[in-house]
Amino acid sequence: MKYSDTISGLFWFFVGLGLSIWSLTYETGRLTQPGPGYLPLALGIILIVLSLILLLGQRKRAPGKKQIVSSSPRGSGWKKVVYTVLVLAVAAFFFEKVGYLITFFVLIVLLMKGAEAQSWKRILLTAVLATLGIYIVFVLLLQQPLPRGYLGV
Amino acid sequence: MGILDHLVLGFGVAFTLNNLLFCFAGVLIGTLIGVLPGIGPVATISLLLPVTFGMNPVTSIIMLAGVYYGAQYGGSTTSILVNIPGEASSIVTCLDGYKMARLGRAGPALGMAAFGSFIGGTFSIIGLMLLAPILARAALKFGPPEYFALMFFGLTLVIYLCVGSVTKGLIMAAAGLALSMIGQDPVMGTTRFTMGSITLMDGVGLVPVAMGVFGIGEVLTNIEENIKQEIFSAKIKGLLPTLKDWKDSRWPIIRGTIIGFFMGILPGAGVVIPTFVSYAAEKRFSRYPEKFGTGVIEGVAGPETANNAATGGSLVTLLSLGIPANIGMAVLLGAFIIHGIQPGPLLVTKHPQLFWGTIASMYIGNVMLIVLNLPLIGIWIRILKVPYNILFPLILVFCFLGVYSLNNNVYEILIMVAFGIFGYLIRKFNYEGAPFLLAMVLGPMLETAFRQSMLYGDPLILFKRPISMVLLVVGLFLIISPVFSGIARRRKRLEQVLEEENR
Q: A92 CB near a chain B CB, below 8 Å?
């Protein structure tokens, strides 16, 4: 039995269940006159059935066999993933207030700093060049409206 | 007007300075992102969408299509030199391409990949030009049941072709369809599942989801695994394949063109699967199948031709039926719609400038690509040497920028990040993103077609019309058959176990 399939199977089971219940708040209609809730309800039920196939299929296949965790995090890599996601989300939060120049500069510095030990010279150089490049290509040449923020550029 | 007159019209459109320039920009950007692992044509076309807002629709489609087929050219370079596929469609090229590089034949491998791509690309444009108008005329007779069945078939095909479990493929498709239900119901306009959010009123955008699942998700997976690139540093001499190489590659290129083009037409097959089919076919036809994987040129020529031929094929379905055959086409469909053009049976007659202009530009683009790829290979190799630690923050910033500039909506960045996590997790749990995204794209069209079909008053209408019946039956067979083969396999395994126990 694959441990990871049990986790994802359970996840989809609850997604299907939630979707089915939520769909009932809309008019479902009948097959020859389906309403807005008809297909979502059908999809919710299909998801429940499929997740059960995934869950039960796993159980039947290999009774008593060792659990294989194919999704086990290797080393500290997952910390980098969590860090990167958080940095991105926070950057999105401040983007419109602070403006694109500062956000992108800080974003690149933080992302590079978190990835691996690198020299500050390299990090700052990349961040400055990339921000400048974005300014030239997207703002000057392509005239994309980006939030100017504090710098006003 | 005959095809020749149309072509004259098309070349007239494509040969304006502006269109030539943007065609060049498209194939150049395409090659670049094809070379770079971790960023593909889907994310790039999404990124460039807002840039095209102010452009003429023909010019924008010419450029975006250029990115799409250009990427198939560039993908092979990384496979051959680094053994990391630049695009999913170049995975197979690693098998023999990298070995050839190891044997000191990187030049002919790169050269043959470029020539094969050129030939496959060019012939698939001819196929597109001949077939799309015919298919469009036939499609005028399609009603909702046929459209429903065709999309259903496309979805089952992409699930069937998934590596791994069919159940997981089905789950991904169902989840993608469910996601597409968010927003206004396409028939009655009832708002569904929005939780009062204005951003979600128009549904979850394709671009943030595609960039999240394929762009951010890919980057997250890569930074966790800490990919280290080892570039084949020996000097590359002589890009021109020898006469013997040409002789060996002649049939693989012809077969690759046919396989690529016709599989590309099928909704759901995409550009990746034809490369695998082509490789398998070459191995079967070869007089020395045991040598495959040790650096034979057929293993490069066939698949690299097939992926380029498939791009022409997948455009057939988009331009004549309005159905995106794969995710790249889905993003391109988004581009059409943003410019107020609905691809479908009427496109050829209503927008001949666009249709024939794009086709003509593809001929030109293919010539540009072969010119770009052969002499400039040194530059692409230098770009490959940019370490991933510098590359990935830039990819993330570009995704960030691209999603924001689409609607100037910060919430869409958050949607992208959320689907980035989703994309990362489905890779961990061995699910595939393709059925999810294709289902999400087809969702509203599928729902409309289904509900309109049901309005005929007969639930069995889908099985009463010949075209829809055939497509539905084949589709159902595709998802049910692995269950049976699975049972057969399990029975075999059980027999083996019993035999061993009896011994």
A: yes
